[in-house]
Amino acid sequence: MTDRVREILSWYNSENPGVLTNLARILNHGRLGGTGRMVILPVDQGFEHGPARSFAPNPAGYDPRYHFQLAIEAGLNAHAAPLGSLQAGAVEFAGQIPLILKVNNHDLLLEERDPLPAHTASVADALRLGCVGIGFSIYPGTAARRLLYEQLRELAREAKAAGLLVVVWSYPRGRGLTKEGETALDVVAYAAQIAAQLGAHLIKVKLPSAHLELEEAVKVYEQYQIPRDALADRVRHVVQSAFDGRRIVIFSGGGKKDDQALLDQIRAIRDGGGFGSIIGRNVFQREKSEALRLLDQIIQIYAEG
Amino acid sequence: MTDRVREILSWYNSENPGVLTNLARILNHGRLGGTGRMVILPVDQGFEHGPARSFAPNPAGYDPRYHFQLAIEAGLNAHAAPLGSLQAGAVEFAGQIPLILKVNNHDLLLEERDPLPAHTASVADALRLGCVGIGFSIYPGTAARRLLYEQLRELAREAKAAGLLVVVWSYPRGRGLTKEGETALDVVAYAAQIAAQLGAHLIKVKLPSAHLELEEAVKVYEQYQIPRDALADRVRHVVQSAFDGRRIVIFSGGGKKDDQALLDQIRAIRDGGGFGSIIGRNVFQREKSEALRLLDQIIQIYAEG
Amino acid sequence: MTDRVREILSWYNSENPGVLTNLARILNHGRLGGTGRMVILPVDQGFEHGPARSFAPNPAGYDPRYHFQLAIEAGLNAHAAPLGSLQAGAVEFAGQIPLILKVNNHDLLLEERDPLPAHTASVADALRLGCVGIGFSIYPGTAARRLLYEQLRELAREAKAAGLLVVVWSYPRGRGLTKEGETALDVVAYAAQIAAQLGAHLIKVKLPSAHLELEEAVKVYEQYQIPRDALADRVRHVVQSAFDGRRIVIFSGGGKKDDQALLDQIRAIRDGGGFGSIIGRNVFQREKSEALRLLDQIIQIYAEG
Amino acid sequence: MTDRVREILSWYNSENPGVLTNLARILNHGRLGGTGRMVILPVDQGFEHGPARSFAPNPAGYDPRYHFQLAIEAGLNAHAAPLGSLQAGAVEFAGQIPLILKVNNHDLLLEERDPLPAHTASVADALRLGCVGIGFSIYPGTAARRLLYEQLRELAREAKAAGLLVVVWSYPRGRGLTKEGETALDVVAYAAQIAAQLGAHLIKVKLPSAHLELEEAVKVYEQYQIPRDALADRVRHVVQSAFDGRRIVIFSGGGKKDDQALLDQIRAIRDGGGFGSIIGRNVFQREKSEALRLLDQIIQIYAEG
Amino acid sequence: MTDRVREILSWYNSENPGVLTNLARILNHGRLGGTGRMVILPVDQGFEHGPARSFAPNPAGYDPRYHFQLAIEAGLNAHAAPLGSLQAGAVEFAGQIPLILKVNNHDLLLEERDPLPAHTASVADALRLGCVGIGFSIYPGTAARRLLYEQLRELAREAKAAGLLVVVWSYPRGRGLTKEGETALDVVAYAAQIAAQLGAHLIKVKLPSAHLELEEAVKVYEQYQIPRDALADRVRHVVQSAFDGRRIVIFSGGGKKDDQALLDQIRAIRDGGGFGSIIGRNVFQREKSEALRLLDQIIQIYAEG
């Protein structure tokens, strides 16, 4: 148990020992174990974007077990997926990688201005599958965000009582925001704050742009000259917005991109005090050996930090 | 136990001893303990307005523990905040300051004409965190106010059975009112009455302006010449509107303002028979030593009353 | 918040902030507040021994409110009593003294070799009355001890979820023990251990004699030369037996006795590292001014320690 | 509302207004209304002793409506009976006399050393029948007393939440006591204390004899010279044993007896500070005009007090 | 994941992935991780034998945290203890050693011919504390064994649904057996079979002697010449009796003994195909450096196997 992990656990001292145990499991697993940094492989795109869009670039990914193997071989901290995917590999890979059950999911067969995920799995499922936690998406800015917050309230209560972690994907969307606003610095920072206030243990947000969306916020960012030109500065601001860095904030990689751009982002996350990456398409949509090489580079960057 | 506290407790004699115990705890805590006056530090702006708008002016406030410390050092009566914030400090400061868990919250990522907060925490959370009560916002004047009143009915029943105080933020808004009307004297007095009727123990309203909003009310205020030029008179009328002064009404400070203006408001609250202030941005958005100096002045004004 | 109180709270770090808050309330209340020592006034003798045996020596005690007043005036840490007694004073003295609801009780109208208390009040009652915790008696050594342990398991679970302390009166009795054995050093130490294993926050035991009861234990005490001639040494051993001093163990005074003998016992409790006294008959069975004088002496002894 | 009734209600200030309302209904009803004294007609002998033993002396009593009429015409405070009896008259006499539903009952078709009543009606029945409270018998001293106390705990919780009074018949019996001991002064006083501790609002006990039953108690009664030669002194001691007179204790008349003896008992109850009588066989086993005459005399005695 | 662990997991293929995950956690933890062998440190003797008998030989053990540290430093597979002990260390050592919550316990303050443990903790406690499983004792041969089997049925159902392991201490005792019979080969083998049939994942038995207890069994053992002279043969027979070696059977060390004798037993367990040791008094009753040296020798023996 490193001092850094011990320090991180101390931020969660209102939680029971079961929650702390599962938090320690994630923080101590894989090649980044003990560093306080983490890389998680999330694969919910089959549900969220459809199978071909997700897996045609690397058809091995049609089989959910591929993602377990990838996460294990790469030495990641955890693998997150919906119910069906986890059920497909949980026996074969039992005990080899911490699992996070994504308990709500959204598909694209009906385009809506204010999307609302369905609640597709339970805390009991997470226990039955041997998971360390549940994952839940909220969409601040959408018309039905209140329903999501209230579902999360009940699921978090139940999960924590059973010693499970609560990982919140906080993705602003909906009629309240422009497309550019979804990743605006002020909006992403706000999304991190909302997740923290709702009791999330791990908070997953998108990497913020330098754009500012909310009129009242623009004044403040300018008055106090909050740095936002460099990505590392924006990461730092988002981490600060989640209880001054006392909640684990991790960043998603977004759509597939150029390796160098991606690695630069990782360096910025590290330099800005981010806790790591939750990175899906950029790794599972390429051939395995390439994916492992890329993940190796990512892990090395975090390990240096 | 002072005579004044004993008198205030007697107004709540239909409540069980648990509620009276927690009411006594707030009334007897801090530098105003025993006077029947109170100053409470509420910090829900991270959720309600976003993190940068709330904490950039004094970045220490990004850490929820800062607000516990501020309330304790200033000798305030209580600290109120959402779930995440209280969880972040409840162990470290256990037993040092009465806590109020704000169980519904609203964010600004979707502007709505009739805002509706989400129900984000439970009575069980309040007990688990060692709180003396729950806080709940109602928005009289909005389309969905009935849902809020009905949520409050159930939460208040549950909270009181467990001996917890029910603190109601009663903020008129929505399509039924002009912007000026939200703080009109008749509207604020009406909001205080509604909260009292819904069973609130402590009622938080905004300071009323001399404006009158409702046509039928205007006639009455003029016919009976209800004084409303001086703020103290307006405070007196609002307090009278909450069961002739037999419910604790406290006033929020609103946005950050000039010290002298703020202290004049405090004197008016005191002179009008208000029970105190629930004051957030005016204190946590300035550097700590300045905040402590200002709170010291506020407390001295109330202590004289 | 003193360092000592902070240290004691740290021993209970698997509990939620509500439990820690109520533990802090007891530890910080009264004249011993902050020292880590405590004196509690328990009055369940009306139920346990009958009214005249309990209150005839000082008839003021027939009124349950007398005991609230006595505990408050003496500056004690808490008052413990059955449901009816607490209901009789909880409104009048709301917020003036931490209360512990004794939720099981035994009377003497039927003498049994293996006595079994009745479960007479609930966790909901404790919340409704504004208590900081529940009190529960177990009788290790009796035929029905298992029922008591299992009732305690469920009550403790419910109480802790609501942030309440669990105080266990651990009194060995029954067919398994000789009369002398009930206060034998090995038996009292065993009783403290059992209460600690069942999850008690505060453990109340009788002062142990130098007698040893259990054959197998005798060998060990002699082989390892565990000191037991001085009362302070016996107290030290009992405290050690409750997780090496990391659970609060307090000692009951037993039947009324000579002041000097009683004060010598208090000194021995203090010198042996005991956390304080739960002292009933020796104080409520004498006239109030005398009781206050005696309690003052007791508190001074503990305050020196 | 007389000062005396106001005073009595003040003793129950931890109860909700519904309970106080029903307590006020009994205290203000009938010819003794407002005096703080009460006479209640209980008729559960049909169940407890069998119909002929109960009603053959005055066959009008076979019809439950007779007892409603008798209590109403005599101007009593309340009528208490089992489910069937109340159902037989509750419509016809709705609103004319406060009703107490006796919710447990015992019959004599199986003689047992440790009798245990059956739980025969519910709080819901009491509400449905318009009762002011429930009545419940406990038998301290019997082997199964714990079951009775625990049933009472749950019924009292439920009844009080619904604003109903809890009237406890506290009758020591069973293998723990001699026949003479069942009405011994120390035992009756102990029974009153137990009922008070279990949360009873009205306590019904038998008139105590001068006998003392419990060895340890004898010493105390003699040492403190507790007067017990005169019945009034014994009544005074029993009333004192129920929270120093702050719980309503009423006395049952026992088997049918000579009028003069009965009236002397009433005077003793009055002079000893008892709150009244619950008197059945002595009135319903005689012809109605005689019964009314006797009740008139009893009421006059209490009215003088 | 070694082939051996994979093979062991395959024996439990009717269990859900959560159970397999926790089984893998134990099998992969510590210095024997991956070998299919295990050494577990159980410390329930404070409850089962009393504190001094357990901890006086090495007083560091009075503090439950000592045993966590010992198990971690020695590189053991798991630590098993009652509720209070686990609560005392679960936060400090979160994530450092798999924990088994012993959910029933028995004390020696009442000697009974047919002992019956009390059910002292729940599956919810095990989840809250972050345990990998629950431990439960059954006493085949005692009068109340059916109650134990039926409690186990329900607890096992609940535990497995939550992904927890079920570890059964199967200790024949009671009026059905002679003292010698408690460890007779036929009886121990029978106890292992019963535990396996009740659904245990891990079975803990005592080391068997060559004695045969049951008349009908003696005939069979002799007819089929089941080898029982060497301890390794007896171990082999017990393991065979638990589904032909397809359930994990581990052996307890019993009271403190000579090192050489102990290590010979370990070799016999290994050679007989036993899965490991659950060894308490022999290690925690000696000074820590000695305990670590002995555990190192034990682990080396198993690692060779």
Overview features:
homopentamer, 305 residues, alpha/beta, eight-stranded parallel β-barrel, two-stranded antiparallel sheet, globular
What is the structure about, briefly put?
By secondary structure, chain A is α/β, with parallel strands linked by helices. In chain A, 45% of the residues lie in helices and 14% in strands.
Supply the helix-strand structural class of chain A. alpha/beta
Order of helices and strands of chain A: HHEHHHEHEEEHEHEHEHHEHEHH
Percent of residues in helices of chain A comes to 40-55%
Q: Based on the structure, what is the oligomeric state of the protein chains? A: homopentamer
Taking the alpha carbons of the first and last residues of chain A, their distance comes to 18 Å
- Radius of gyration based on Cα positions of chain A: 18 Å
Low-confidence stretches of chain A: none
The best one-word shape of chain A is: globular
The number of helical runs of chain A is: 14
Q: Would you kindly provide a written description of the structure presented here, covering whatever features stand out?
A:
5 copies of one chain form a homopentamer. Chain A is α/β, with parallel strands linked by helices and 305 residues long. The first copy, chain A, contains 14 helices and 10 strands. In chain A, helix 12 links the parallel strand 9 and strand 10. The A-B interface holds A 11, 13-15, 140-143, 145-146, 149-150, 153, 157, 172, 174-177, 186-187, 189-194, 196-200, 214, 216-217, 220-221, 223-224, 226, 237, 240-241, 243-244, 246-247 and B 46-47, 49-53, 56-57, 59, 62-64, 82-85, 87-88, 90-92, 105, 107-111, 116-122, 124-125, 129.
